[in-house]
Amino acid sequence: MLLSRRRLIGSLGAAGLLSGCDKLGENETFRSILFKAEDAHRYLQRSLTDRGALAREFAPEQMSPVFRTNGTNNPNTPDYQALAANRFADWRLVVDGQVARPLSLSLAQLRSMPTRTQITRHDCVEGWSAIGQWHGVPLKLLLDQAGMRSSARYVVFHCADRYGERPYYESVDLIDAFHPQTILAWGMNGHLLDIGHGAPIRLRAERHLGYKQAKYVMRVEAVDSFAGIHGGKGGLWEDIAGYEWYAGI
Ligand SMILES: Nc1nc2c(c(=O)[nH]1)N[C@H]1C(S)=C(S)[C@@H](COP(=O)(O)O)O[C@H]1N2
Ligand SMILES: [Mo]
Fold this sequence. Notes:
Sulfite Oxidase, Chain A, domain 2, binds molybdenum atom, 5-stranded antiparallel sheet, 10 strands, 7 helices, disordered N terminus, 5-stranded mixed sheet, single chain, alpha+beta
């Protein structure tokens, strides 16, 4: 957002400078500056008002040769280790909360649903980025199948890994839950998701920073508020480290 505000000032400044200068409007250099300002302004409008806009997608040759892992890279609970030892054949994703029809889906069932593939850039607040390809089922399809109730306001992701007593958890609002690039990814870079990156499934909410991209998702819960979710701020880092719940980029 800081960057966006700077862009706003920049683009308003440029537009203001040019608006009174009719003759300059015929000058090629000035015309190109004007158009750049317009582009910046359009971008800004989107980032401020169009929450449904798509995150940038990249070409295969732009994928990072190395995509590092961060946070948990192998949940150390006996339950998770048992699921992993059996290649997640016994794993089930639960979709519940404010839904008419709670779901319990196997990895095979998730993989047989319509798949979206997208190459996007992951931005971690700790100061690194990587471009990777993700394969997964749009979250919208699961919420529709479960019959999400109109009382739902947020979708919470409960993960297998623990930070002390708590699991990792994150959440998004319904705009992001239904965003076309919000998927539960079971694959990465053309293969099944590995444990380091969140097997068997992890969230990709591409308009958000890295800590929103919950790995090792076990349960998707539709809620009307965060009151009953741990510290009440909608995510582990929000509750214990003061991170912003809205991590839009
Ligand atoms: N379950 C879980 N999800 C998580 C984390 C974590 O520790 N546990 N770390 C987050 C952070 S801060 C980042 S940057 C990304 C890292 O994803 P990667 O390991 O695939 O690079 O996962 C996010 N999702
Ligand atoms: Mo991160």
